[in-house]
């Protein structure tokens, strides 16, 4: 009897385990402990949350491995970490230190303006951002085991996450209604692999788990993304940039489980203290928009 | 008709629901205690056990699920779900202390016993009572490091116990809901259909 590690089934199956859950950005071991105690299904270890990356500027890179190791030692839930788009060496390093999931993320400064990482060759699974179905399927074609809508990270403004979710899910419904003989042309127009377009046509969903991200700041935001039809949420700056991270983290976890129950949503939304301040996306100049990164 | 609930706090509950429906079972997602009414069995799916424990506590589910079992309901935990069933849980988070559990299965379970995600694997295992191999998906999987005298070991992998049964409680450290093979779901379906009220839960 033999066993196999790193197969698509193991990588995509792991992503299935996050469903109906909240993955939280943390920058210290203490924050990771708060996230775990609140019921996060995983933590994303990074040096600066998107709100600070926006404020500070400069090049945002993979975090110091010693900081990630400290977070791995602090909690028992899975630990994710981010690499720059196209930076396969940063990914090799994160795999070597035992990170459970890698986010090839537009929130960090891209390393390659044309190509993403070929993710198939890694044992560790990858999550990638997407604004539309073509982008999502290109990432899955490269070996991503999980997709998240990009949203506009670090703004505390859910509008872009909603736009991207509606776009991806709307594109899926549109493909379902097309006759099979049109799918090759659909694939050409989407710039997506034909086999994956056929999968979407047949199943009415992405081949991998699809989470929401970018701008989620309240339990209601999280439940909105779930009701739109996503599988779970990433919360970045929304928790630790709010007045009471502990309470807010717990409330968002409960809101994702009971996203269809307005009575519970009302109850958990009470007395959370001030949310993160937030940025109106119309005020961002195009260079400040992170969601446009990725090709 | 046999009615089986799937605990839907978080994790791979939809996959279990699909498997059960393919076998002709009537299913229901369970998020609140009242949703246990009228069920013959309950599956506790894979996911993150710390998350599920937190939500079990926040929404007062521990006692109702225990009472459901005491009154004859069958239980099956897969991976994180198996952790929720065990008497004793090892390998808990360093700062959270002892992890609460239903304690309806006389075993000690060790969390993440095979390592981190890069060590997760698929293996063909042989299961007592099933012909041929079963494709088992192990994801940051736990193992049963001690089994009580009334617990039957149904499968192991390289000397580690990965599937057990005690009366109307079934527990697997792997994820049958992620393979295309519905035979273990059929075993549980049968367990739920029998309505053996004679079993004395631990």
UniProtKB/TrEMBL annotation, chain A:
Record: active site: 82
Amino-acid positions noted as binding D-glyceraldehyde 3-phosphate in the UniProt annotation, renumbered to this chain: 166
Single GO MF descriptor: pyridoxal 5'-phosphate synthase (glutamine hydrolysing) activity
Residue span(s) of domain PdxS/SNZ N-terminal: 9-213
CDD domains: pdxS
Signal peptide: none
Keywords of this entry: Lyase, Pyridoxal phosphate, Schiff base
Keyword field contains Nucleotide-binding: no
Xref: InterPro entries: Aldolase_TIM, PdxS/SNZ, PdxS/SNZ_N, RibuloseP-bd_barrel
GO BP term, pick one: pyridoxine biosynthetic process
Entry's family note: Belongs to the PdxS/SNZ family.
Subunit organization: Homohexamer and homododecamer. In the presence of PdxT, forms a dodecamer of heterodimers.
UniProt function note: Catalyzes the formation of pyridoxal 5'-phosphate from ribose 5-phosphate (RBP), glyceraldehyde 3-phosphate (G3P) and ammonia. The ammonia is provided by the PdxT subunit. Can also use ribulose 5-phosphate and dihydroxyacetone phosphate as substrates, resulting from enzyme-catalyzed isomerization of RBP and G3P, respectively.
Official protein name in the record: Pyridoxal 5'-phosphate synthase subunit PdxS
Biological source species: Deinococcus cavernae
């Amino acid at each position: 009897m033999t066993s196999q590690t790193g197969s698509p089934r193991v990588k995509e199956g792991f992503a299935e385990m996050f469903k109906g859950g909240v993955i939280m950005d943390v920058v210290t071991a203490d924050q990771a402990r708060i996230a775990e105690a609140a019921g996060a299904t995983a933590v994303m270890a990074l040096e600066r949350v998107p709100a600070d990356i926006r404020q500070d500027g400069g090049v945002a890179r993979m975090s110091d491995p010693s900081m990630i190791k400290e977070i791995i030692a602090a909690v028992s839930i899975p630990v994710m970490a981010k690499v720059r788009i196209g930076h396969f060496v940063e990914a090799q390093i994160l795999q070597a230190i035992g990170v459970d999931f890698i986010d090839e993320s537009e929130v960090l400064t891209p390393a390659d303006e044309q190509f993403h990482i070929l993710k198939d060759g890694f044992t560790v699974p990858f999550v990638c951002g997407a604004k539309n179905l073509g982008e999502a399927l290109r990432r899955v074609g490269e070996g991503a085991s999980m997709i998240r809508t990009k949203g506009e990270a670090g703004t505390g403004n859910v509008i872009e996450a909603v736009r991207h979710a509606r776009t991806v899910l709307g594109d899926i419904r549109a493909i379902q209604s097309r006759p099979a003989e049109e799918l090759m042309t659909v694939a050409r127009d989407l710039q997506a692999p034909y086999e994956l377009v056929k999968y979407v046509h047949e199943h009415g969903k992405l081949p991998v788990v699809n989470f929401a991200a970018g701008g989620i700041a309240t339990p209601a935001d999280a439940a909105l993304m779930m009701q739109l039809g996503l599988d779970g949420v990433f919360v970045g700056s929304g928790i630790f940039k709010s007045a009471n991270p502990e309470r807010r983290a717990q409330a968002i976890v409960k809101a994702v489980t009971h996203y269809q129950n307005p009575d519970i949503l009302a109850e958990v939304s009470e007395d959370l203290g001030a949310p993160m301040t937030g940025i109106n996306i119309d005020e961002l100049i195009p260079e400040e928009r992170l969601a446009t990164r990725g090709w | 008709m046999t009615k089986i609930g799937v605990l839907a706090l978080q994790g791979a509950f939809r996959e279990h629901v699909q498997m059960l429906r393919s076998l002709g079972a009537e299913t229901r997602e369970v998020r609140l205690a009242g949703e246990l009414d009228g069920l013959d069995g309950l599956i506790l799916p894979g996911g993150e056990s710390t998350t599920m424990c937190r939500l079990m506590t926040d929404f007062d589910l521990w006692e109702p699920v225990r009472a459901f079992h005491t009154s004859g309901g069958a239980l099956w935990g897969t991976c994180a779900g198996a952790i929720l069933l065990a008497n004793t849980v090892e390998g808990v988070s360093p700062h959270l202390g002892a992890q609460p559990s239903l304690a309806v299965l006389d075993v000690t379970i060790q969390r993440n016993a095979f390592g981190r995600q890069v060590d997760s694997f698929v293996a063909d295992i042989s299961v007592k009572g099933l012909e041929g191999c079963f494709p088992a998906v192990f994801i940051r999987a736990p193992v049963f490091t001690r089994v009580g005298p009334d617990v039957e070991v149904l499968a192991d992998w390289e000397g580690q116990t990965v599937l057990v049964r005690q009366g109307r409680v079934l527990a697997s450290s792997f994820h049958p809901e992620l393979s295309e093979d519905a035979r273990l779901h059929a075993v549980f379906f049968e367990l739920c259909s029998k309505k053996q009220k004679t079993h004395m839960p631990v």
